[in-house]
Every structure is written in C-alpha cells, then in structure tokens.
Amino acid sequence: MAETPIRFGILGCAGIARKLSRAISLAPNAALYAIGSRSLEKATNFAASNGFPESAKIYGSYDAVLDDPNVDAVYLPLPTSLHIKWAVLAAEKKKHILLEKPVALNVGEFDKILEACELNGVQLMDSTMWMHNPRTAKMKEFLSDPQKFGQLRSINAVFTFAADQDFLENDIRVKPDLDALGALGDAGWYCIRAILWANDFNLPKSVTALPGTIFNKVGVIISCGAALQWEDGKVATFHCSFLSNLTMTITATGTKGTLHLHDFVIPFEEKQGSFTTSTESGFTELVTGWAPLPSQHTVMTDIPQEVRMVTEFSRLVKSVKNGGGVVEKMWPTLSRKTQFVLDAVKVSVEKGGEAVSLS
Amino acid sequence: MAETPIRFGILGCAGIARKLSRAISLAPNAALYAIGSRSLEKATNFAASNGFPESAKIYGSYDAVLDDPNVDAVYLPLPTSLHIKWAVLAAEKKKHILLEKPVALNVGEFDKILEACELNGVQLMDSTMWMHNPRTAKMKEFLSDPQKFGQLRSINAVFTFAADQDFLENDIRVKPDLDALGALGDAGWYCIRAILWANDFNLPKSVTALPGTIFNKVGVIISCGAALQWEDGKVATFHCSFLSNLTMTITATGTKGTLHLHDFVIPFEEKQGSFTTSTESGFTELVTGWAPLPSQHTVMTDIPQEVRMVTEFSRLVKSVKNGGGVVEKMWPTLSRKTQFVLDAVKVSVEKGGEAVSLS
C-alpha cells in the first residue's frame, strides 16, 4: 500500500511558488492539493500552469485553504509583513508550515509564530533550499574536518542580483509595508544563514553594519553589508544587494583549509553542484606557484535541492502526524537564529554602523 | 650590438630575493651584478645558490653595493623599517629602486623616499608582482567594459596564509622594530592594492577597520580587515591574516558583471593564470539553474609575472638613463596610494574601528 502523501496548500501565487509547486509534485511524499489566492482567477490560472492535478482545490481566499480539513501543510510565500498573521492562523488550524524567508519582520513576530506552532503541535521549516542540497552536507564535512580545514577563522558571503527598474519600483521586496527588510531580508538572509551554518550556528558576539548601506526612496535597504565577530576571534563579512550582477559567493578560511563556491544559494546547474577546497596550501620552490593545488568536488543532485527540502519537510510532518505531535525543533531554531542576527544587522544599520552586542 | 642590461645590486639575502634573483636573470634587459649583506659569507652563499654569474660582486655591506658605480639599480627586500634609510641612500647614490612592499612604515616616510628619488632622477617601482601579470590586464579589460561589467559596486579581497610557529615567533613580519605593519603591511598590502586597482586607483572617501583585529604579544597585527567606501556608493572589504590557510581571493561585483579569482597575488601555476567572469547572469525558467553560466578565461604566462616586472622596471630605468632623467611617475603614485590607504586602516584599527576620512 502506497503511503499517503502530505497534502499541500499554497497561500498566494508568488513567482517562487511556481518552483515550489514543481518541487511538491516531484517529492515522493508530497502532493499539490490546494491553492488559494485573493483572486480566484489567479488561483485557477496558477494551478493550471503549475502542474496541479485536476482534483486540486482552487480557492479565492487564504482562509479557505486553511479551512480545508484535507490540507496537511501550507507553503507560505506571502510578503514578510503577512507572515505573522497567516502563519499563526495556519498553526491554529493545525496546518504544518513551510515558510518563505525571511520568516518574519523581526524575531518578536517570529516568536509569536513559533508559539502558535508549539501550542498546536505544528512543524515549521523555512524555505532555505540550499540547506537541503547534498553538496551542503559535503561542504560541512570538509568544514568539520580538523585535518582538512581546522578551525574556521573567517568567512565572506556575497549575494547580489541586478534588479531591473520594474523590480526596483514595484517588487514587494522594495516596499516598506510588504518586505520591509528589503535586500537584507531577501539576499542577506542567505548570507547570514551561510555564515551561521559555517559556524555550527554559534551566534556571533557582535554584529556591525558596514558603511555604504543604500536605501530606496521609501527607506527600504537595497544594498548593505555587515561584519560579525565571535568570542574566539572568528570574523565574518557579507554583502547583499539588488544593485549588482547575480553573485552567490562564499569564501571560508580555516587554520588548515579554504572553501570556495560561487553558487551557494542556487547551483549553476540543477543536476550537479561543485565547490573548491584546499588544505595546507603552500608554494612551490621559489614561490612561483601553489603546492598542493586546490581541488574541485562535484556532487550529483539528480533530486533538486528544493525537492529534497519538500521531501524532508513532508517526512517530518508525516512523523508528527504518525507519532502524535513530536515536532523537529532544529529547523525553527535555525530560522530563529538567522532572523535574530538579521535583526541585529538592521539595528546596526539604523544606528549608523554601531556595533550591536548579541551576548 | 646587444643592449647593455640594467645591472642590479641586491641589498640583503631575504627569502624573496631568491625569487627576484631568478627574475632578474630571466629578464632580457637585466643582469645580476652585485649582492650585499652585512655578512660576506651569507652574500657569498646567496650568490652561489641563486644563479649569480662568476663575475658578480659580493659585498659585506649594503653601502658597498651603493658605492659601486656599475650598479644601475637596486632591489631592496629589507625589513620595512629600513626602507627609508636605504632607499634614500640608494637614491642619493643615483641607484634606481625596485622596492619591496609595504614601501614604508607610513606615507610620511615614503614621501621622503620619493623626494630623494625625484631630487636624483631615480625611477622607483614597488615589487607588487601581480600587477605585471598579463592576466591582470585582461581582468582590467573586463572590469572596464561597460557592457560586460558595468560600474563596480563591491569588491572583497582576501589574502591569508597560515604562518607556522617559527614565523609567528621569529619572522621580521611579526617584529615591531622590523615590519611593524605585520599582516596588514604584508598580506593587506595586496588586498588594498587590488581594491584600488579595481577602482582605477580612485581613493575611497573613508576607511573603517573591521572588528576582530588580532595582535601578537608585542602589538603587531597578525589578522585584520577593513571596509572602504567611495562617494558614489561603491564598497570594498578585505581580510588579511597570518592565521588562515593560504587564500588569495577577489570577488568583484558590477552592475552588469562579476569577477572571481582565487590566486590573485601568485597564480596557482606559473605558466598560466585563470579568472572567472559572468555578465548579466540570470536564472533558467523556474530558477533551477543559472543562465548564462560564468565563463573561465585562461591567460598564458610563459614569462612569469616577476620577470615581466623586472623587465618593465629595467625598461624604465634604461629610458631614464638614455633620456636624461625622465622617470615614470605612475608606479610611485600607485605605491603611495596603497600606502596611504594602508595607513588609514592602521589608524582606524588603533581607534577601535572608527571611520577614518580620506577626503
């Protein structure tokens, strides 16, 4: 007997929901079940063009999705300012939640979401897809190897993309009432997540916004960066922006090794992902070249990272359903730490680059 | 009739002088002519093991090299604190100067060197080898292309290497009376030079040391970083350290393109150098990969960068000798700008990360 898949309802027809719809339909333990939009027509069109089955429920409101007793879980790609309302409501309706990032406008809001999830025995995971790429696990193996990488000393993360004029004027990510965190919440989220990931999610002792933050006319960050510092002397920097060509780079240095990759958020190619490592690098005689040379590692990813994410989330949801309510706390904890550091960067930006202590 | 090569005298037997000796002997317009050390024995051994001709002059003092009327130019790899004394003396003896970096302990000292050079019609060039790699010119072409790269928006440079215990205790670069600028003067010099190079040597409006500077027991910087900011919103960061595995990375983002390379100071291989570019990068349908993909460019370097440097320096010296004293001002200007920014980083470090204005 085939396992019943986790039935997903999607709230809203955001562009990113197209990618997630495909991922849900490809995940063996998940199924596209319902789509809700404030416009029934939009929902109908979305379902038709994104592989929803004939039997899928098409709703003209988000509430209707949450009220459908057959919906196990919702994917929530709404603007960040709406997360608190709809995630809390979803939790209250016992819907498990796959939540787009940033998870909230601030940790205070996210804590209310978490409270509702805990109260209702609901699994929450944020939609940071690259965390689920098998390449990520391979890179972590390298970073955790005392012989190959040693202790982490520094990390730089860059995530930028060149938004076009329409985006810069009309996208939800440049609107103070929608995704008020702008480039920091969007691209910066990934940089902060990568930095924390490389640090085994140990929080920095302080966060300092870098000079050069750029705001749009209505005060939303469209370019910024920060420096993070740990008790033990580790340092990190990141830069995120809507104003530079697409770039997704990590450079991590350890006492013994170095890690590089240039597509950490979305791999260049769907079916494989690479990264470069070096260990105890030195020079040839007379310093005319390197010895040993760095090595490139390629990890096959026949199952795309977003499909793995949906599969893992669905597995956890299934386990909650079967086991009577035991949720996996790791994922919400990672979300909260990312948001916590992101909040601190925002505070430092607002204070003109003053260091913000996290201890 | 073959051209007379420029006759080099080397002051001191520093490790790096071995690489330069080879470069001088490979450069078609330069010749190893003299070596001076405070120890005649060291000078003799150095000459014997570094390809000096039988006829080379071996001197037991630096003064003797400067007093030899046949020496056209000196290569000066002495500890930074000695640059002012020996570079000024060399200039006064009309010796053209190839000067190791950092060029001085501060711009004030360097200005005295420059004054002596100007007064005596002496050509000065600092020994930043990668500037002379043909790859550098190719990268600059890309960065200057309004269609392929657009306007520079951000740049991150990392130069670290894992010094061993002996280095950390005994190398001149950890001694306050020798190379007092430590990792900033050594590795940081290259990062600052790269950042300025990418910015067409326009100076930033301000420089801010990043949190996390590490000093050794005698107060010399062994790890630090800084953020630089330009009037037009461009930003740069760098990290330099003696405490991380060898890493030499540049990530530059422009409005239309991105540049990456991981061996900017010393190419992985002597005979070729690569870099990666991307232009107007975007995603495939459904954002499951990149389109277009980045492209790798390889530049053949049959003549190593340090040989090109010596050749160019010797060409300029020859032209001064032939032309009656017209020196090329560009090289000392680049040296001075690099030192100027480096000084500002040091001041910001000393002020605990306060922004230092350069305007």
Q: What distance lies between the first and last C-alpha atoms of chain A, to the nearest angstrom? A: 52 Å
How many helix segments of chain A? 10
Query: How many individual domains of chain A?
Result: 2
What's the total number of strands of chain A?
18
CATH architecture of the largest domain in chain A, by name, is 2-Layer Sandwich
CATH class label of the largest domain in chain A: Alpha Beta
- Approximate strand percentage of chain A: 25-35%
Under CATH, the homologous superfamily of the largest domain in chain A reads Dihydrodipicolinate Reductase, domain 2
Write the element-wise H/E pattern of chain A from the N-terminal end onward: EHEHEHEHEHEHEHHEEEEEEEEEEHHE
Q: What is the overall silhouette of chain A? A: globular
Chains forming the largest contact: A-B, 69 and 69 residues
Query: What would you call the quaternary organization?
Result: homodimer
Structural class of chain A: alpha/beta
Helical coverage of chain A, percent range: 25-40%
The main β sheet of chain A shows up as:
10 strands, mixed
As residue ranges, the low-confidence spans of chain A are none
Give the integer mean of the pLDDT values of chain A.
96
